[in-house]
Amino acid sequence: MEGCCDLEVDVNGEEVFMVHKKILMSFSSLFSKLFGNLKGTARNLKVVFNEFPGGAKGFELMARFCYDNGRTMITPSNMFLLNCAAHFLEMDGNGSSRHSLIDQTEKSLKGINFWTWSELLEALKQCQNLLPATKSSVMLQCILDCLIERIALPSIASPYTCSSDSSSFQFSCDTSIDSLKSSSSQLTWWFEDLLFLNVDLIDKLIKTMVSLKVNHATIYKFLFYYHKSRCIGAATAEKRKITEVVISLLSLLDRSSLSCKGLFEIYRVALGLRISKFYKNNLESLMGSQLDQATIDYLLAPSPHKRAYFYDVNLVLRLVQAFLLEGGSLSFTSRLKKVTKLLDSYLVEVAPDSHLKPSKFTALVLLLPDYARASYDRVYRAMDLFLEVHAGLCEEEKRSVCCALNHEKLSEEVLKDLSRNSKFPSQTVQMALITQQSMIKCSLPDTHHLLTFCDSLFCSNTKENLGKEDSETKKLRADLQGMHWKMMGLEKVCGTMQTEMANIMRSRLSILGNARSVPKLCS
């Protein structure tokens, strides 16, 4: 290149090239603009490029194209480098498509369906090295479309095995690594091959996958694998960027394709990285949508730094609220039952925490609508533990804790225990006794009208018929009389219960009256 050279080109401070300006001007509109108006034989001309795509290597490939009269070998490994250099130098051939490096590189994409998988990856690596110059490139989009088509093709396990002619496109077999990939999973064989992509290309790749309707569950698995693999050994700033981009991409997927376990794992990583509140809220929304898949271990996250309570109750409050926003689907009722069971187990776990405030505990109980619980037995157990640990609560605070307890959905055994539980406020105990009495009355059949009916029936018969009363009638009459006496006996029991309730209330009032000089213990 040094013969008859009259132009010095400094490329990004990497290397200086001595070239003939007329040769470059015949292919580059940019050089024509720079030197086309120069008269005479100006010497010692110099051009400095600070952001030339591909650096010295890119400029050398472009110069060889010019010196070879517009001919060069274009391959998947240099196509994007030549294309970026051509756009930078405006190498449109000055009106001649035959001499246009831009046209030649773009036309070479016509054979992309015959590229091997390795050639596609090599081209992607080159695109990545040239970012942001190729970020919005039509050529980049073309290679991504082809790559995704290979990934989504159902007739093959991986492109490392030969495809049949029945496929929508043909491509060569990469026999050099055939033995390594022949046993790969049909859905995930490509995961490891794309780990080299940075977050900018991953963002573009996944968005293209979503637009082409690639299976969302597969996309989720790849994003989880990518996040886990790329965060190993990465600096904090890089981990944060990877995590935020992955969260943003997960938000594009159908919620049913997500895994609760994977989302919680990403969340644990995100907490240590202090990601922005926007991405944290997005991730919590995704976690909440899959809360029916969670186990109690997922929810027992430690409290934030410098907080006295043991577990992050505020997180659970947010997750359940996010889950409730998902309501409306046909399966929501069955999913709600699972979340209710999970939350009741969580209540029992956090209740013994002496630092948990009554307001937070009550908020957890009231979080779900009443219809979601078929039984309040576990809620009662949680309240019992909470009141035992928080023995210093005043009567008003105890009532606020117990206000959400639905006595009608308590079992007979729990009601019996509650009616004798001194840790609960008197109003709650009184309601338990009233509910017990009501349940007993409702469970008894009304037999009095049956006995009256039978008596009138028997009295209407003649004296002769009275002596001929068959055995079945006698048995029915005896059963009805027995049920009647049983009802009368239980009514006496109810009366006794009312008496006991009154005695308990008088006892409690007596204690409270004698203790007026002692200040109430309020937390």
TrEMBL record:
Keyword Ion transport among UniProt keywords: no
InterPro entries for the chain: BTB/POZ_dom, NPH3/RPT2-like, NPH3_dom, SKP1/BTB/POZ_sf
Alphabetic keyword roster: Ubl conjugation pathway
One Gene Ontology term from the biological process aspect of the record: protein ubiquitination
Every NPH3 domain range: 188-439
The UniProt record lists the keyword Zinc-finger: no
Pathway in which the depicted protein is active: Protein modification; protein ubiquitination
Residue stretches making up the BTB domain: 5-75
Family that this chain belongs to: Belongs to the NPH3 family.
PANTHER family: OS12G0117600 PROTEIN (PTHR32370)
Protein name: BTB/POZ domain-containing protein At3g22104-like
Species of origin: Castanea mollissima (Chinese chestnut)
